[in-house]
Design brief:
The protein is α+β, with helices and mostly antiparallel strands. It has 16 helices and 21 strands. 36% of the residues lie in helices and 20% in strands. A hairpin with a 4-residue loop joins strand 1 and strand 2. The structure holds adenosine-5'-diphosphate.
Length: 556
């Protein structure tokens, strides 16, 4: 077993052992695919968390066999590994490990789309394949198929996000649910296939359960294997698609709205992901602290927020979603949404034609002569700001599963840097931690959790960013983000303290997180020791040396 000081979550590895291991890794992967110089490791160990652990090296294998060889070397030298696909796990720890001194295994060179099956609507991909890459490939070669994406970076990995049970934007939003048939390198170096992955089996990527115990879940949010290939289900391009946005008129009716959304989801009217967001989320995407606000506030007071809301035309609560399928279904679903939602606020449907018009308006706006009249007309017709107009095509497209850099710019809300085109919060020193408890989807549970979190954010003096996401028709994720100034040690400490307090209070109230950052993993076992003991026994059987991602999701 590895020698790990769990108080500090550091692996004890001597300099000589590390040098010998790096040499062995270079022999297998080539010198250029092993980064161990301090400068290189510095860059690769950045994250948006207040603190993260530093790896000892970062390696880039390109085949399953190379991954197996890396595992063999790690076992021989007693060095823990931390696998990731693209490492864009921003706000959850990026590519950094729970245990310092681990070797991070980045699978970005394994970026082949191995198969697309048009008839059965699935692809088989390697972990380095990104959302943008898959979408571009489908648009070019298989235009009758769509894939889902997240509203995070287009450079995120399809497999990486799914393994951490990330959520997307369409009716295929539950990403782990769309994986089918995995190839996995075990911590002992063996390569196994799950489900129907026996040689010659025809249903490997069409039938999730295989026969016998279902094992794919063992490789999600776990440290039991490195996934090197997976089937991912795709959706046929729908005959009709419209997106909608809804602004809630009175914030106090939020619980009522949640109950309606649940009913619409349970009855199959709304099948896409729904992102019900508060004003701070919209502001974080479209705007950011001014230098003066950065100097004066850790949390924007209502006197600052109110004029910003008015300027952008932002409601306290709003949400968007997509309707897709046969024309008749979309027509009927629109009618039902109007009937259920119109009494509570303002509902707007948008189709491709409207978005075409919006794009033309945005081009006209670039001409200084036209800008004023266009802005006036937009405000008069919709009550929305030009910034909201610019957001419309982005929202419409992402709800179709087209990835975009637009939304992830929220990470720069509290950054002194202007929002860049190619958002990269690690590179740009943004401070962001996701805290994401999940609740039964009833108005009262959501109200309770939103109030609990809001009070905590207030007590610790941070802006309350919350997005309510349908995980399934019975559960809602209360996704909150702590934005803090990463170069301010006082804010870093306070952000970490808020995260700790949120974790404790929500767990004490009987709620779990749907996904956890590396900062919160080591305490997960406290609430369910029997389950963690069982999982630890499985882990000891599969990973006798404890070499793979120790500490991940609480498993030592
Ligand atoms: P993305 O770049 O899509 O955000 P990451 O590569 O950062 O995804 O991975 C997200 C999480 O999933 C991390 O906790 C990582 O350890 C785990 N993970 C990612 N890819 C793999 C893989 N191929 N095998 C095992 N675990 C993985």
């Amino acid at each position: 077993m590895l020698d790990i000081d769990w108080e500090k979550a550091e692996a004890s590895i001597s300099g000589e052992v590390l040098s010998a291991a790096v040499e062995a890794l270079q022999d297998v992967l080539g010198v250029e695919h092993v980064k161990s110089l301090p400068g290189d490791v510095d860059v690769l160990s950045r994250s948006t968390l207040p603190q993260s652990r530093r790896p000892s090296a970062v390696v880039y294998p390109s085949t399953a066999e190379e991954v197996a060889a890396v595992v063999g070397i790690a076992r021989r030298y007693g060095i823990p590994l931390w696998p990731c696909s693209r490492g864009r796990n921003w706000g959850y720890g990026s590519a950094t490990p729970v245990v310092g001194g681990s070797v991070v295994v980045v699978l970005e060179r394994m970026d082949r789309i191995l198969e697309v099956n048009d008839e059965l609507a699935y692809a088989v991909v390697e972990p380095g394949v990104t959302y943008r890459q898959l979408r571009n490939h489908l648009e070019a070669k298989h235009p009758e198929l769509w894939c889902d994406c997240t509203d995070g970076t287009p450079q995120g990995s399809v497999i990486g996000n799914a393994l951490d049970r990330g959520l997307g934007t369409t009716h295929y939003a539950d990403h782990f649910a769309t994986l089918c048939g995995l190839e996995v390198v075990l911590p002992t170096g063996e390569i196994v296939r799950t489900g129907g992955g026996v040689p010659g089996c025809k249903t490997w990527h069409t039938h999730k359960w295989g026969v016998g115990p279902y094992a794919e879940g063992l490789f999600s949010q776990s440290s039991l294997g490195i996934v090197v290939k997976a089937g991912v289900w795709l959706m046929p391009r729908p005959e009709a698609f419209v997106s909608f946005t809804f602004d809630l008129a009175r914030p106090e009716t939020l619980p009522e709205l949640v109950d309606i959304i649940r009913d619409l989801a349970l009855t199959g009217v709304v099948t896409s992901a729904v992102h019900l967001i508060n004003d701070v989320v919209s502001l974080a995407v479209m705007s950011q602290y001014t230098p003066d606000q950065l100097r004066r506030f850790s949390r924007l007071p209502e006197e600052e927020l109110a004029p910003m809301r008015a300027h952008f035309g932002i409601a306290r609560w709003s949400f968007g979603g997509g309707l897709q399928g046969r024309r008749a279904f979309v027509r009927a679903a629109k009618r039902e949404l109007r009937r259920r939602l119109a009494p509570l606020g303002r509902l707007v449907f948008v189709d491709d034609r409207t978005i075409g018009l919006v794009r033309r308006l945005l081009v006209w706006r670039q001409n200084p002569l036209w800008r004023g009249p266009v802005d006036w007309a937009v405000r008069a017709a919709s009550g929305k700001s030009p910034e909201m107009l610019a957001a419309a095509p982005e929202i419409h497209d992402v709800l179709k599963g087209v990835p975009s850099d637009y939304f992830v710019r929220h990470a720069y809300f509290k950054s002194p840097l202007p929002k860049p085109r190619d958002a990269h919060p690690d590179r740009d020193g943004c401070g962001l931690i996701w805290f994401a408890p999940i609740v039964p989807m009833t108005g009262s549970h959501v109200r309770f959790m939103v109030d609990l979190c809001e009070a905590e954010f207030k007590a610790f003096d941070f802006d309350f960013y919350v997005a309510l996401l349908i995980q399934n028709p019975r559960s809602m994720i209360v996704l909150t983000a702590i934005f803090f100034l990463k170069d301010d040690p006082v804010q870093c400490d306070r952000a970490a303290a808020l995260y700790g307090s949120l974790s404790r209070k929500t767990a004490d109230a009987g709620y779990q997180s749907y996904r956890v950052s590396t900062a919160g993993m080591t305490t997960l076992s406290e609430k369910n020791p029997e389950f963690f003991e069982m999982m630890s026994r499985i882990r000891r059987a599969i990973d006798p040396d404890g070499v793979l991602a120790p500490g991940k999701y609480g498993f030592r």
